[in-house]
Amino acid sequence: MQPEVVLKRSSSLRRQQWLMALLAWLLAACCGAAMAQLPSLSLDTLPRPSTPPPEKGLVVPAQVQRWRQEAMALEHGDGVERDAVRAAQLYCRAARHGDPEAQFNLAWMLTNSRGIERDEAQAAHLFAAAAEQGMAQARNMVARLGTPLGPPPACLRPPETDAPLQTALHSKPVQPPRALVLPPIPPPRNAPPQIVNFVNLLAPDFRLEPHLVLAIMATESNFDPMALSPKNAQGLMQLIPGTAARFNVRDAMDPAQNIRGGMAYLRWLMAFFEGDVALVAAAYNAGERNVERYRGVPPFAETREYVRRILVAVQFRTLHPFDPTVTPPSSVMAVLRGPAQPSLTFNPMRLPPQPPQPRR
Question: What residues contact 204, with CB distance under 8 A and at least 6 apart?
Fold first, then answer.
């Protein structure tokens, strides 16, 4: 072989090796830059905010408490003339706003014919709602009466003063118009910058608006990565063990895994409730089955307050984009979009005075 040919081949080989090395360096630099865009989160790098002390009992608005107190006075004739029908109507009003004691007291009147007509079917729904909110007496009655059947009664339907669900306003699923560009919602003031950056970068992968994720996080844990609820909900997004396992979260106390799991759940809820933010927030707090059972926001004081706080945080942007390929919609969506249901009223029938029955 001629020396000139050997030299040319050697030079060509060195050029190829140099080009391969340059390409490998460029790939490493690009991958490194991409990884650098998604900051890592760990417990060591996140602040631990001071969590306010838990409320003693459920927080019920003062007006709802007054309705219940007035109803109790009318039921027992405490300082006023006894009027069972008026008492039942006031209990019903308070029950619709999620007051568990009013739900229980009305159910007791319906079960024991305390001045009004007996109706155990309606009472079973009311006892179940109070039991869901932690009343031990209500749980005992649910065990006795069994699972309530049929749609929820009038006294567990949302109050007329509630804003109508977006779902009920449209005959078919609606995505927010892409041409409508709304100004971004700033993050909560106490949101750690590391978490805000992480959510901003990751939320588009789950087709979620960052401000909604941060609103849920602020309401759930106040950005405490070590938050642990009495129901064993864990971390920033307060994942219970069942939800964590459902969305492949191995360590719910790892902030990055916790946020990813919470976003995966929100993405699923968005598809299940077709972008209705009020229903999604209610389901995140009380579970999607309760939203289906009550055909809307459940009549739980905590859940109603939770939904209100989320809607305020997202500036009442009640429609959110969703990916319909994630899961089929809930069957309740067709019910909510169907013909307007007749307005239900609660008209208890007065009965002759009966001897009082002790509450269990």
Answer: none
The string of DSSP codes covering 222-251 is: TT-TT-B-TT--BTTTTB-HHHHHHTT-S-
Q: What is the mean pLDDT of residues 136-152?
A: 93
The whole-number pLDDT of residue 174 equals 76
Closest to 121 in 3D by CA, of 131, 130, 110 = 110
Q: How far is 334 from 337, CA to CA, in rounded Å?
A: 5
CA dihedral 191, 194, 197, 199 (to 10 degrees): -70
Structure tokens of 146?
């069994």
For residue 228, what are the β-bridge partners?
Answer: 234
> Averaged over 219-235, what is the pLDDT?
95
Domains and CATH numbers, the chain: 62-156 (1.25.40.10), 167-337 (1.10.530.10)
Q: Is the pTM of this model over 0.85?
A: no
Locus of tokens 């409320």 = 55
**CB neighbours of 58 closer than 8 A, spacing ≥ 6?**
98, 100, 133, 134, 301, 302
Angle, helix 210-221 to helix 255-272, in steps of 10 degrees: 110
CB 138 within 8 A of CB 131: yes
pLDDT tier for residue 26 given thresholds of 50, 70 and 90: low
The answer to whether 324 and 173 are in contact (CB under 8 A) is yes
* Residue 208: both structure tokens together: 């979620």
Provide, rounded to the nearest whole percent, the portion of the chain with pLDDT above 90: 66
Q: What is the pLDDT of residues 314-337, one digit of tens each?
A: 999 999 999 999 999 999 999 888
Backbone angles phi, psi at 154, to 5 degrees: -55, -35
Task: Please list the residues that pair with 72 across neighbouring strands.
Answer: none
Q: What letter represents residue 176's amino acid?
A: P
Query: What is the token pair recorded at 300?
Result: 């739980």
Three-state secondary-structure class, residue 345: coil
pLDDT score for 35? 47
By residue count, the chain amounts to: 360
> Sign of torsion, CA 278 156 89 69?
negative
Q: List, by residue number, the catalytic residues.
A: 220
Per-residue tokens: 110: 């319906």
pLDDT at 8 over 50: no
Task: Summarize pLDDT for 284-314 with one digit per residue, the tens.
Answer: 999 999 999 999 999 999 999 999 999 999 9
